[in-house]
Automatic annotation (TrEMBL):
GO molecular function, one term: ornithine carbamoyltransferase activity
Domain Aspartate/ornithine carbamoyltransferase Asp/Orn-binding: 149-297
Protein name listed in UniProt: Ornithine carbamoyltransferase
Source species of the chain: Methanolapillus ohkumae
NCBIfam families noted in UniProt: orni_carb_tr (TIGR00658), PRK00779.1 (NF001986)
Location(s) in or outside the cell: Cytoplasm
Catalytic activity: carbamoyl phosphate + L-ornithine = L-citrulline + phosphate + H(+)
InterPro entries from the UniProt entry: Asp/Orn_carbamoyltranf_P-bd, Asp/Orn_carbamoylTrfase, Asp/Orn_carbamoylTrfase_sf, Asp_carbamoyltransf_Asp/Orn-bd, Orn/put_carbamltrans, OTCase_ArgI
SUPFAM superfamilies to which the protein is assigned, alphabetical: Aspartate/ornithine carbamoyltransferase (SSF53671)
Family (UniProt): Belongs to the aspartate/ornithine carbamoyltransferase superfamily. OTCase family.
Enzyme class at the top of the EC tree: transferase
Keyword Signal part of the UniProt annotation: no
Assigned GO CC terms: cytoplasm
Length: 303
């Protein structure tokens, strides 16, 4: 494993290794113990999209591990003025020990990976968000002491996070039900890949039925970055696809309510759901730091 471009790049063994390492890192940080295994190593962070959790967690993570993170806004480097992704990857490989990229097109990450001689990590693309999903699995493990044999329900847009979650559920052995409006189903190639990996996947347009006996309820914004021109239509199409007290009531008594943030209370999730006793949303956000540090150690330090 050189890169992390897709959840499908990870085996079951890889996932458990990352989760175990992330839990160890989290505990040692709580105790004030230093894990500086990336001393004198530098991480380039290419950002085409704005970010809160991704940027802060990767910068802090590299600092915690003894390394250095360099923020590279795409408008501030030559890639924003026409230099090819291929050339950028080759040049950055001469300077850095790893690259993360938060980009619009998944193809950009593929080109970076194919042309870089150093590890490349997908920090979000239009197709996948594996770093988020590793933090999600870590959070589920903390609360359920397992990540297999449960029912995971996604409510909302069949987007990049949904794609990565489908793959993850297939790999770890979790049933996933995707409830989304017609026309917003997940990408068919990810549906096929999920089933090829042995996943138990159902796609429906009935969120209430989907949520029955759920162990996990998960949602994301209805209007992602890049979808702003469709906002009015999306708000109308998604109006019945909110995680709220009604869906929680038909789920299991210990259901976890998850959201990858940023959240819009009153739209994709009710205030009572995100701020209520079932919510683990801010644990998810924190675990981005620990899970990504584990990925950095695995790829940059070979741990």
């Amino acid at each position: 494993m050189k890169d992390l471009i897709s959840m499908a790049d990870l085996s079951l063994e890889d996932i458990y290794e990352i989760l175990d390492l992330a839990a160890e890192i989290k505990e040692k940080r709580r105790q004030g113990k230093v894990i500086d295994h990336l001393r004198n190593k530098s991480l380039g962070m290419i950002f085409e999209k704005s970010s809160t959790r991704t940027r802060v967690s990767f910068e802090v993570g590299m600092n915690d591990l003894g390394g250095h993170a360099i923020y590279l806004n795409s408008n501030d480097i030559q890639i924003g003025r026409g230099e090819t992704v291929e050339d950028t990857a080759k040049v950055l490989s001469r300077y850095l020990h790893g690259i993360i990229a938060r980009v619009y097109s998944h193809d950009t990450l593929v080109k970076l990976s194919e042309n870089a001689s150093i590890p490349v990590i997908n920090a979000l693309s239009d197709e996948e968000h594996p770093c988020q999903v590793l933090a999600d699995l870590m959070t589920i493990m903390e609360y359920k002491n397992r990540v297999s044999g449960m029912k995971f329900v996604w409510v909302g847009d069949g987007n990049n996070v949904c794609n990565s979650l489908m793959l993850a559920c297939a790999i770890v052995g979790m049933e996933i039900v995707v409830a989304c409006p017609k026309g917003y189903e997940p990408d068919e190639k990810y549906v096929i890949k999920t089933k090829e990996l042995g996943g138990i996947l159902t796609v429906t347009d009935n969120p209430l039925e989907a949520s029955k006996n759920a162990d996990v309820l998960y949602t994301d914004v209805w209007v992602s970055m890049g979808d702003e021109e469709e906002e009015e239509k999306r708000l109308k199409d998604f109006k019945n696809f909110q995680i709220n007290e009604e869906l929680i009531a038909v789920s299991k008594p210990d259901v976890l309510v998850m959201h990858c943030l940023p959240a819009h209370r009153g739209l994709e999730i009710s205030a009572g759901a995100i701020d209520g006793p079932h919510s683990v949303v801010f644990d998810q956000a924190e675990n981005r730091l620990h899970a990504q540090k584990a990925v950095l150690l695995k790829l940059l330090a070979g741990e």
